[in-house]
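To assess whether the prediction recovers the assembly geometry, we first specified each molecular entity separately, as shown.
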Amino acid sequence: MSVLVGKGTKVLVQGLGREGRFHAARMVEYGTKVVAATKPGAGGTTVDGIPLFDTVARAVEATGANTSILFVPAAFAMDAMLEAIDADLELIVAITEGAPVADLAKVAAVLATSRSTLIGPNCPGVISPGKAKVGIMPAENFTEGQIGFVSRSGTLTYEIADLLSAAGLGQSTCIGIGGDPIIGTPTLEAVRLLNEDPDTEAIVVVGEIGGSAEERAAEYLRAFAKKPAVAFIAGRSAPEGKRMGHAGAIVSGNSGTAASKVAAFEAAGIPVANAPSEIPGLVRKALGGR
Amino acid sequence: MKLHEFQAKQVLARAGIAVPEGRVAYTPAEADAAAIALGLPVVVKAQVHVGGRGKAGGVKLAKTHAEAQAHAEAILGMDIKGFTVEKVYVEKAAKIAKELYLGVTLDRDRRRPVVMLSTVGGMDIEEVAATKPEKIARGWPNPLLGLLGYEARALCFDAGVPAEQRDAVADVARRLYDVYVATDAMTLEINPLFIQEDGTVVAGDAKLDIDDNALYRQPDLAQLKEIAKDEAAEEESRKLGFSFVQLDGSVGIIGNGAGLVMSTLDAVKNAGGHAANFLDVGGGAKEAVVKAALEIVLANPRVKSVMINIFGGITRCDEVAKGILAVIARETPRVPLVIRLAGTAAAEGRRILEGAPLVSRATMDDAAAEAVRLAR
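The predicted structure of the complete assembly is given in tokenized form:
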């Protein structure tokens, strides 16, 4: 078993532009079932063998899609996410970067009353190695195994997956939750999924400066951890008040600092790596030297 | 994107929130003329994109024309936390009976805006939150509905706003929330919100920070963007589609992906060095982009070495390598370059750079250690 994605995942692509087409093809190569795409006005045609529909609702009705991956431009991301929520998709993965925060607050308000799970936006997506990939990550860095992995970042996720794989530590599910100030599935909720997943033996949490999502996840693990965890926080050398690439990565006053996040994990008995290269060693140690 | 106080107050005034009358002045003579037009006493206020102006001596009360001119003279050209004051706002002084705080910002944990109201005005709200948290009333309006009447009233009751001003303050709160939404603000604050001796309520200061991701639909506000001297490189980078933050170390950094670049900065610190900048070239960086990034980093005279850390995903390492080669083939860089390529097409990338005058390392830690050593 895996969380969020698996053999039963049937993907609908919202936004089959240049990027969407490229990644849809990579997902198909990986063995993920890509069953439909939406493009208003182009319903009834196909692109790269993928049937197009005018609306998400029609695509779901015709194909039974249960998951959406979204590549639409930032200005239209709210509309696309709300359309996917309205069609009752189980999982919505929003890759789009740069959506206005006010739009995301509205999406979060609607999401709270729905049955959908939203990953992202501004994220690399979700992969359960060997089963399914709904995202843009280069699959070759990931291997099948028992390490669950949550991260706010893209390339740093690939780097760490590569380090884990090279150390023989395969992954059960990797969830790239996204770097925006408001995301569909915050660190705590993603960690909870992996904590409850019987196929995950240890959890790696990769956070970064900004907000207090890592602190909340650490508190949760302190009380409810069923398995060992290891953490890493990016941005320990970042100055206050500067947005470090991700819209969400900003230290303001005493809130969002790396020190606060590191302290929260340490208080929960969770070792924190000083560099990504230390993560595999800490995971091995946490698993009792296996 | 931050607005100046006088710009934010114009926005508030258009939304029906009372603000004192004021004028912008670029010279002491203009400040004096403003004082004459407004009538004494006036407050002379530095207009810079940074907090703590009062503590830095950038806000002064003038009771005479000589004082108005002298204050303007002292404040214009003043350096406040690295920002040079180029203009002052001369404002008719309010007759203050009481100071409140009113603000709207994003509560990331609740994933909603939060409206805050306090009878402890004039202070930094983070300081109030730390020392007297019970003095701040908070409300979390549903973003689909806006700040409702009962929510605004509850804030006034919870904060202990005097009964005579309750309706007026609740009205300002609702208007302020509407401005927050209409301007795509990240933060909108009135601190202090004055209750005057005659009982009227006016905005003593205004802070408005607009969501950069929403500027495309705020054309009028986007026009107000001002670029400080030390932000020029950041602005240039934004136009090229990557994020750049100027820092004060000596190791220039280029990487792809915000998290990876942050980790690269940390790796440099772990190795005993200091990063000169944060530069994320973004996904799918091609030759021209890498070339431009390298030029921006090398333009900083403090840079003594450059570390390039690319983990190929969508970005192809061979494309990055071609970009690096294009720059160093034309002119040998004035400082050593340390390259670390991994992921998609890393082997091809390394082959392209074979024989080029640069140092190549296989891991992020090794590359950082080498870049720090070369910067010494």
